[in-house]
Amino acid sequence: MSIAETIKSRISTRAFLDTPVNEHELREILDVARWSPSGGNLQPWRVHVVSGDARARLIETVKKAIAENPFADESEIAIYPPKLGEPWRTRRYELGEAMYQKLEIPREDKPARIAHLLRNYEFFGAPVGLFFSLDRQFDKGQWAHLGMFMQSIALVAAERGLSSCMQEAWTARAKSVSAFLGLAAEEQLYCGMALGYGDTTEKVNQLRSSRVTVDEFATFMTE
Ligand SMILES: Cc1cc2nc3c(=O)[nH]c(=O)nc-3n(C[C@H](O)[C@H](O)[C@H](O)COP(=O)(O)O)c2cc1C
Q1: Count of H helices and E strands in the chain?
Q2: What cofactor does its activity depend on (predicted)?
């Protein structure tokens, strides 16, 4: 696959097979992704990989925390601005509606929508979960670099026939996850990523989110 094809074919996969991904393959993916660029070559990213028993224990730990306090918000980072303006608000809404349409969950069926959201905390069934963190001294620049690293992982995985879903949902349980991973106090958790083989029989994986055209986000100055 060309880079363009890989970029266009990567989608967020929200239902996985339990087919395992071996550590050797994970290491190979990270071994490519480490060549991502970063300002000053700081390579500020850190990644924590969970699979097997560790994954099962993490899921159990977070499930318990959710049962004890379903509405807890342990996030240090706001996933979206508190008053998300247009056109972003509409884009977010449309994505949600398109996803629930694929899942055949109507707007009124709140319990089913919540149940789907909670699947985030099981990595949507993926056998591997990755968590990304940064040293707290870092600012917006390094956060952008972490994003490049994450995209590299998703693309290298896609090139190898693996699917992924980046998961900011985990930030709502950042304290529980950080404690589980044994993160040092200066380490800030950002995001998770589910990784594995997508279940192509699940309709949710047929969702192809839209994008605005180049003219809607690019300007070209020539004079
Ligand atoms: C940093 C990041 C975090 C995300 N977090 C979640 C998440 O927690 N749960 C989820 O289902 N999708 C999540 N997504 C997926 C986005 O909804 C998705 O990337 C977007 O709708 C575009 O669709 P596509 O990835 O299929 O092209 C996240 C994406 C990014 C880049």
Answers
A1: 8, 4
A2: FMN
Q: Is the CB of 12 under 6 A from ligand 1?
A: yes
For ligand 1, mutation pick of 88, 121, 165, 209 (most atoms within 8 Å of CB): 165
| The two three-digit tokens of residue 181, written as one number | 């991973």
166 lines ligand 1 (CB under 6 A): yes
Average pLDDT value for the chain: 97
CA 90 to chain CA centroid, Å, is: 21
pLDDT tens track for 83-97? 999 999 999 999 999
Q: How many residues does the chain have?
A: 223
Protein fold of 3-72+85-211: NADH Oxidase (3.40.109)
Query: What does the pLDDT average to over 153-159?
Result: 98
Domain range list for the chain: 3-72+85-211
Please give the Cα distance from 195 to 200 (Å, whole number).
14
Q: Which residue has the tokens 């089913």?
A: 112
CB-based contacts of 165, cutoff 8 Å, min separation 6:
12, 13, 14, 124, 126, 193, 194
Å from CA of 195 to ligand 1 middle? 13
- Alpha carbon of 52 to those of 25, 59, 117, 136: distances in Å? 15, 11, 22, 29
pLDDT band at 114 (very low <50, low <70, confident <90, very high): very high
At 71, the pLDDT band (50, 70, 90 cuts) reads confident
The Cα–Cα gap between 85 and 221 comes to 27
